[in-house]
Amino acid sequence: MDVSALVKEQESKFKSTLVEKEIPLEVDLGLLAVTDPNPTDEDEYKANLENYLTATARDGPATMLPRTKPLPKPKPPTKWERFAATKGIQKTRRERKVFDEERQEWVNRWGKDGKNKDTEEQWLTEVPANAPELCVLQLSISTRRRRHGKNARSASRRTRSERKQDIARSVAMAKVSTASMGRFDKKLEGEQKLRGEKRKFDANETTGKDESKRAMEIISRLDRPKRQKTNEGGEVAAESVVNVRKAIRHASRGRGGISLASRSTSRERAALARRPSGDL
């Protein structure tokens, strides 16, 4: 049975992956690289880059080696990202530089030699026909100063708000710094009650998957090997029956090991001083 016709019909449904080259490609199996020694037609390359690259590439590229892991799924947008998209809020800030069409160069948007001062610095200004006595220069200066004052007031308002929040936070910390956690302290007039964090409990009804996951976490913690202390050489240190730190703290009356060592040294010196000279 001749199936060549069926094979050709099946191949015609897909794009060919073969590219005809005058000079065969050089394959480096060690580096898994392929080099194309064919010369590049510079005229056609400069005339239309997209068509030239499309003609020299395969029509149906394929990945011969499959991925070991599935393609990463796009992360869902957060609540803030959805809100910003609804309100049209952009994360990127305005660029400081702006292109000047007259001078054909990038200039500052504001500040020294800023683009916002073009109306003030130009030698000829167009005056509206309905307002012949309007001074465009003074109008531009007053508008810029009014905008600058508005920005300064906004910055001062933000500073006052932040300072107010810092004071409220400091007052709240001072209230709970007493022995009774502020329960028996004198209340000020108009003082608001501190609100603590609300405890969050798991739902009473959970899925079998969540319950099994929680059980496996408990089992993994129980099966975890006990940590062993090691010395400087990396060997497992022997467990001491006496708590050395607690013993030093008790013997030095809370002053530490240095105080205990200095006190023992002073006692030895006093004992040597009291000893008769013949016993030395």
Question: How are the secondary structure elements laid out?
Answer:
Elements: H1 4-12, E1 26-28, E2 33-35, H2 42-47, H3 49-56, H4 79-87, E3 97-100, E4 105-108, H5 118-121, H6 136-175, H7 208-222, H8 244-251, H9 257-274
Antiparallel strand pairs: 1-2, 3-4
> Percent of residues in helical segments?
40-55%
Sheet of most strands: 2 strands, antiparallel
Distance between the termini: 120 Å
Largest sheet strand order: 1-2
Low-confidence stretches: none
Structural class: mainly alpha
Proportion in β-strands: 5-15%
Short note summarizing the structure:
The protein contains nine helices and four strands, in the order H-E-E-H-H-H-E-E-H-H-H-H-H.
Description:
This protein is mainly α. Among the domains are: 4-56, no CATH class; 97-127 and 134-171, no CATH class. 42% of the residues lie in helices and 5% in strands. It has nine helices and four strands, in the order αββαααββααααα. It has helices at 4-12, 42-47, 49-56, 79-87, 118-121, 136-175, 208-222, 244-251, 257-274; strands at residues 26-28, 33-35, 97-100, 105-108. It has a two-stranded antiparallel sheet with strand order 1-2. Strands 3-4 form a two-stranded antiparallel sheet. β1 and β2 (33-35) form a beta hairpin. The protein is extended. The protein starts with a helix and ends in a 6-residue tail after the last helix. The mean pLDDT is 80.
